[in-house]
Every structure is written in structure tokens, then in C-alpha cells.
Specification:
It contains eight helices and nine strands. With about 260 residues, it is an alpha/beta fold. A nine-stranded mixed beta sheet has the order 3-2-1-4-5-6-7-8-9. The chain is globular, with a radius of gyration of 17 Å. The structure holds adenosine-5'-diphosphate and the ligand Cc1ncc(COP(=O)(O)OP(=O)(O)O)c(N)n1.
Amino acid sequence: MRDMVYKALTIAGSDSGGGAGIQADLKTFHQFRVFGMSAITAVTAQNTLGVQAVYPLPLEAIEKQIDSVAVDLSPDAVKTGMLFSHEIIELVAQKTAQYRWTRIVVDPVMVAKGGAPLLKQEAIEAFKRHMLPLAYVLTPNIPEAEVLTNMRIETFEDRKEAAKKLHHLGVRYVVMKGGHAEGSELVDLLYDGERFYEWKSERIETKHTHGTGCTFAAAITAQLAKGKTIYEAIDIAKRFIQAAVEQALHIGSGHGPTNHWALYE
Ligand SMILES: Nc1ncnc2c1ncn2[C@@H]1O[C@H](COP(=O)(O)OP(=O)(O)O)[C@@H](O)[C@H]1O
Ligand SMILES: Cc1ncc(COP(=O)(O)OP(=O)(O)O)c(N)n1
């Protein structure tokens, strides 16, 4: 008998350098034996040194890609990444409702590591209004959680308070990543509306962390596509990202990408 084929769709921006965005998502899906599909929202000219240019796609082009995938290939889980403008956010929200997608992982991509904006300032309210209530899982880093909650996050208790606020704004599972906090121990936090859960790891001292957020969220999406629970999905995604950073590829002269095949070498 044939193995079941699980499918995941990523709606995100293209990173020509291959470390983040659509490219990181598809590599991660593939690594977990999940069939990856894409709807590109924007094309970036990007490498390990930074983002040199951003070209959002026409709304019609984004809509057609989503429709083509949805009507024929029925994704088991969906991930969103760089959405760039309020028009794209509104379109993606409308399509999510139209196709009744429920296993949706929303990575609130705002700024690339080098500081380039990947979400317009004017789109933040639309993001909060449309994307948070749709999110089965939301994966903010600490600065993104600060923007979405309008609060400063300094202590671990602040992170918990922010996670609660995001849950109140409609998110089912809040996964607050700890990469931007100080210290040699890294803690990713899950709030499920009742309890907090922590995933701890050693911080690897490296500048090669380009695409960690995309890769981690894509790993969660792949596991949800396979029918895993959120707790199982984060267990696997955390081990995956740790190995991917630990065995980074050391390519390019800036912030290099993680190693998407590290766990299975
Ligand atoms: N130096 C590091 N060593 C190990 N894991 C890391 C490191 N930096 C980030 N991670 C992990 O990568 C994921 C993304 O983290 P974070 O840096 O907070 O988000 P983003 O990449 O979106 O800014 C998290 O699971 C985090 O624990
Ligand atoms: C096209 C595109 N999408 C998302 C990002 C941000 O990715 P992230 O995983 O947060 O990694 P860094 O940019 O922080 O290294 C991106 N750069 N490009």
C-alpha cells in the first residue's frame, strides 16, 4: 500500500538567498516528507548580507496561486510568512475563510535580521485584525510580540503576559520564541489558553541564524500537516532548529542560513 502523502502550503515571500521565506519553508517541508506548495506574496532580492530589494506581487497573482493550490491539492496545513501590505493580508484572510483552512500557522514576519521591513508599518493593524483570529498557531519572536501587544517585554513574566494578550486577540496557540532574549539558555514558550509550556535549549554562539524563524514555524506546520498535536509538533521543530543552527553551513559572508538537512545527515 502507498504511504499517505501529507501536503502543506506556504504563503510567503521569496528569499533569493535560500535561507528564509518560501525557500526555507519548502526545504523544511521536504525534510519532513511533507509535500510543499507555495503562493509567493513578494519577491525579495536577498542574501546573507541583507535585503537589497522587495517586489510585492500583484494581488491577482497571489490570489491565482492560492486558488490553484486550494482547488486541486487541498493542503493539510497552511503557513503564512511575509505578507507585506494590508491588501495582501486582507486577501489571505479572505482566502483562508473561503477554503475553511483551520490548521494555519501564522509567522508574523515584520523585519529581516539586517533591519529591512518585510511588513509595512501601516499594515500592522490589519494584521492584528485579520490574521490573529485565524491563527491556529502564532509564532512571534519577542520584538514582534511587543508590536502586536503594544507592550515592552523585558522579563519572562512579560512574555507570559504578552502570550495571554495574543490568546485574547484570537490566537489558539501562542508560541513565543526566545531567540531575542539575553542569556545562554534559550526558552521557547507555548500558551494554550490554560497553561504555559517551555522548550529550553542551549544558545549556539553563531552569526549564522538567517531564517531560524521561518524554519522553526515551517517545521511546526509540517508536523501539523501530518496530524501531530501542537505539543508534538513543537518537540520536533525545536530539535530540528537546534540541529539546523548547530550545523550551519557557513556560506556567504554575512548571516548565513541554517542547515535544513542537519537532523537527517
Ligand atoms: N543561537 C541560537 N541557538 C539555538 N537556537 C536558536 C538560536 N537563535 C534562535 N534559535 C531558535 O530559532 C527559533 C527562532 O528564534 P527567534 O530568533 O526568537 O526568532 P526569529 O528568527 O523569528 O527572529 C527559536 O526556536 C529559537 O529558539
Ligand atoms: C522573504 C523573507 N521572509 C521572511 C524573512 C524573515 O525570516 P526569519 O526566519 O525571521 O529570519 P531573519 O530574516 O530574521 O534571519 C526573510 N528574511 N525573508
